[in-house]
Write a structure and sequence with these properties.
The complex is a heterodimer of chains A (327) and B (165).
Chain A: H1 25-39, E1 56-61, H2 67-78, E2 82-87, H3 99-108, E3 113-118, H4 123-133, E4 140-146, H5 152-166, E5 173-177, H6 184-195, E6 200-204, E7 223-226, H7 229-233, E8 238-241, H8 246-250, H9 257-264, H10 268-271, E9 279-281, H11 294-297, H12 304-324
Parallel strand pairs in A: 1-2, 1-3, 3-4, 5-6, 5-8, 6-7, 8-9
Chain B: H1 6-17, E1 26-30, H2 33-45, E2 52-54, E3 86-94, H3 98-108, E4 115-123, E5 138-139, E6 146-152, E7 158-164
Parallel strand pairs in B: 1-2, 1-3, 3-4, 4-5
Antiparallel strand pairs in B: 6-7
Helix pairs in contact in B: 1-2
The chains are: A alpha/beta (327), B alpha/beta (165).
Chain lengths: 327, 165
């Protein structure tokens, strides 16, 4: 393991996927390129390729998820891996076992890969470091969302979707609408968009969710804060909506969901300000009538369901790259 | 070592294959060199069926040592119905036999063909698996220290290059 960047081994090969921040443009494109042929696997008679045959992939979800866990499971199974889903609520963690003790036990069961979701930022890093410490470098870690920090495969599948519909990142105006500051999805999206050379990225939301200092969250990045949604959407090629997290309501950061919908909910009228061929994305799960209007979510510009399909191919690409590389 | 010109090899290969071609025969080029050869054969044989192509990277047995997926892989384009089809897999060079093994596995992910044959321009020896070509106009022993590659120039001309690894 490379201590400066634990995602790479000493030969510079990707061994864990922990965050998008430290990945170069070349590596991002390499992952997206690798994902492309995997989209066709679903159309075969036999929806499986043997790249991870005989490998054991453990899904460790310490936090709820339907879409991400399911798509990781499908991706691993299409690569012919054996997938073990740990139901953490009924596992020993609920009886008080520590995270690293759980990891040690699974390593003793000859695991080859951990797909980890955890409410604490940095949990996948901790696991990767711990594995290096106990000499289990051959076990790969994929971050499936940690706290407010990162959700790299979501960021990658979003980039795959944008590349699929828009081809060239360097000519795009992208608007990210919602609770950007507290969203691990947004953080991964922004790092990827910046690395891939998007020249204008607008962060759109109310002042309570999006203080002006949010523009400095990535150094030297072309981030622009827009508190007015009209200003944020005008001429945009890509509109990425984020889920409004209920805990923001409890924190009194917003008056009400109705109020939020009125100002920032993506309606056909507001979307009309973006380019006519603009695409609308959402990482799910959607709150219809809060951050997005049903007619937009089901409309011709929405690519929300293709995002889910591409997510499987992107996760296959990541897992095959990690486990297929030399150790 | 003297290799005959590629155009001569393709002419001989075409002549070997022609008596066995039916109206339903489908040529399947194996990426990358095999697709180039298959394009020329497809035109020379005047086939009405669309040309198919296959990338066997997903089934390579050596991806873990860094060979199999280095190009990122391409999607295979096989005919709508592999079930019951007569397929001829086309490649440029037959060497260890691992590519054709992987290609056969890939084919069977799409269905069960009635018959699969294998056409190749040059058999360079060095087999590591028990396979043989159905059609092959030229065999020569190339030492393991050398690689034999088909190249395509900007004018579309095919030629072989022999180099030290």
């Amino acid at each position: 393991m490379n201590l400066a960047n634990p995602q790479f081994n000493t030969h510079g090969e990707l061994i864990h996927l922990l965050s998008i921040e430290d990945l170069s443009r070349d590596i991002l494109h390499a992952i997206l390129d690798r994902a492309e042929p995997f989209t066709a696997v679903a159309e075969r008679e036999v929806k499986k390729v043997p790249l991870l045959r005989g490998k054991s992939v453990f899904n460790l979800f310490f936090e709820n998820s339907t879409r991400t866990r399911t798509t990781f499971e499908i991706a691993a199974k299409r690569l012919s891996a054996d997938v073990i889903n740990l139901n953490i609520n009924t596992s020993s963690a609920a009886k008080g076992e520590s995270l690293l003790d759980t990891v040690d036990n699974l390593a003793a069961m000859q695991a080859d890969m951990f797909v980890v979701r955890h409410a604490s930022s940095g949990a996948p890093y901790l696991i990767a470091q711990h594995l290096a410490g106990i000499g289990s470098n051959h076990i790969h870690v994929v971050n499936a969302g940690d706290g407010r920090h990162s959700h790299p495969t979501q960021g990658l599948l979003d980039m795959y979707t944008i590349r699929h519909y828009k081809r060239d990142f360097t000519q795009l105006t992208v608007a990210v609408v919602g609770d950007v500051l507290h969203s691990r999805v947004a953080r991964s999206q922004l790092h990827a968009l910046v690395t891939l050379g998007v020249p204008e990225i607008r962060l759109v939301g109310p002042k309570t969710l999006l203080p002006t200092y949010a523009a400095q969250m990535i150094e030297n990045a072309p981030l622009r804060i827009c508190h007015d949604i009209g200003e944020g959407l005008r001429g945009a090629d890509v509109v990425m909506t984020l889920r409004l997290q209920n805990e923001r309501m409890n924190g009194a950061l917003l008056p009400s969901t109705q109020e939020y919908f009125k100002s920032y909910g993506l309606t056909p009228e507001k979307l009309a300000l973006a380019k006519p061929d603009a695409i609308v994305m959402h990482p799910g799960p959607m709150n219809r009538g809060v951050e997005i209007d049903s007619s937009v979510a089901d409309g011709s510009q929405a690519v929300i369901l293709p995002q889910v399909t591409f997510g499987i191919a992107v996760r296959m690409a990541v897992m095959s790259m990690l486990a297929g590389g030399s150790q | 070592m003297n290799l005959p010109p590629v155009t001569d090899l393709i002419a001989q290969l075409t002549a070997q294959m022609r008596p066995h071609i039916t109206p339903d025969t489908v040529l399947v080029g194996i990426h990358t060199g095999g697709v180039w050869v298959a394009e020329v054969l497809h035109a020379a044989l005047g086939l009405a069926t669309p040309l198919a192509s296959i990338d066997a990277s997903f089934h390579r047995d050596d991806h873990h040592i860094g060979n199999g997926l280095k190009s990122g892989g391409r999607a295979s384009h096989l005919p709508g119905n592999v079930e019951g089809a007569h397929l001829i897999l086309v490649d440029d060079v037959l060497y260890t036999g691992r590519t054709i093994r992987a290609a056969l596995n890939e084919i069977f992910d799409y269905g069960r063909p009635a018959k699969v044959e294998y056409a190749v321009l040059v058999d360079r020896g060095g087999r590591e698996l028990p396979v043989a070509a159905t059609y092959c106009p030229f065999a020569v022993a190339v030492p393991a220290s050398q690689s034999l590659d088909l190249c395509r120039g900007e004018d579309g001309q095919l030629s072989f290059s022999l180099s030290e690894k």
